[in-house]
Amino acid sequence: MKPFLLLATRAEDLPADEEYALFLRYTGLSEAQLVRRRLEAEPLGDIDLDDWSGIFVGGGPFNASDPPERKSAVQHRVEQEISVLLDEVIARDFPFFGACYGIGTVGAHEGALIDGTHREPISVVEVTRTAAGAADPLLAGLPDTFAAFVGHKEAITVLPSSATLLVRGTACPVQMFRVGRNVYATQFHPECDVEGISTRIRAYADYGYFAAGELDLTLAAVRRLPVTHTGGILRAFAERYAR
Question: Under 8 Å CB-to-CB from 138, ≥6 apart: which residues?
C-alpha cells in the first residue's frame, strides 16, 4: 500500500515522539506505512499526492487566530506550506485528517471564523454526533455521545459553508467537520490516551493552557471520564483510505 503522511509541528521531542507513537497505535499503521515529517524542523518540500494514501496533521502549540506579529517565522512558513497543500487536497477531495491544530488549518483555508470564544481547558468532555455524523463512515459504530480529550485556546465560531458538522460539543460547538467527502478535521484529540495527554500537559505547562499552580488539577481533569471511542476514528480513516 501507499503510505500515509503525518505532518507534525511539535518542537519538543518527547511529546512529538509520543504523538507519532499514538498515531501509529490508533491507526494500526507501521512506521513504514505512516511517514512523519516534522515541519517545525524543516520545510515540507514538494508533495505529490499520488504518492500517498492520505494525510494526517497532528496537534501543536500554533494557533491560526494569533495576530501575524505574534507568529514566529516558523509558524508563518508552516501555515503557508499547509495552505498550499490544502489547495490541492480540497480541489481533489483527497483523504486528509487534521486533529486539533489540523482543524485550524482546514478551517482557516475554508474561511471559518476562528477565535477564542469557544476555547476549552485541557480536560475530558462529552461530545455528540450530529445526524450527518451518525451517517458518516468514520463515526459508524460510535455512540451518539462519547468522551474526548480537549484543550485549545481557539476554536471555530462560524463554520464555513463548505463544511458539514459531524460532532458538536456544549462549550465548543464545532468538534468535528468534513469538507467534501474525504477531508476531515477534529477539535478534540482522537490520537490521545491519558498518558499521552499527560505528557503534553507537563511539556506545555508554561504555554498558557492553564494557570500557574493548576498542573495537578489539569492532570486530574483528563482522568474524569474514560475515553474509549475516539481512537477508532483514526483506524476507520486509515482502513477506509489505504490504497
Answer: 184, 233, 236, 237, 240
Cα–Cα distance measured from residue 130 to residue 199, given in angstroms and rounded to the nearest whole number: 31
Assigned C-alpha cell, 48:
505529490
| E-strand stretches of 14-133 | 34-38, 54-57, 96-99, 113-115, 120-129
Please give the Cα distance from 98 to 237 (Å, whole number). Answer: 11
Ordered structural domains, the chain, with CATH: 4-241 (3.40.50.880)
In a 3-state reduction of DSSP, which class is residue 222?
coil
Which amino acid is present at 91? Answer: A
Tens-binned pLDDT, residue by residue, of the chain (243 aa): 999 999 999 999 999 999 999 999 999 999 999 999 999 999 999 999 999 999 999 998 899 999 999 999 999 999 999 999 999 999 999 999 999 999 999 999 999 999 999 999 999 999 999 999 999 999 998 999 999 999 999 999 999 999 999 999 999 999 999 999 999 999 999 999 999 999 999 999 999 999 999 999 999 999 999 999 999 999 999 999 999
* pTM, to two decimals: 0.96
> Interior CA angle at 155 toward 82 and 8, to 5°?
35
Strands 96-99 and 54-57, sheet pairing: parallel
Residues in the chain: 243
Residue 160 CB burial class (10 angstroms; 0-12, 13-18, ≥19)? middle
The CA distance from 42 to 83, in Å, is 16
| Residue with cell string 498542573 | 215
Q: Look-up: residue for cell 516558523?
A: 74
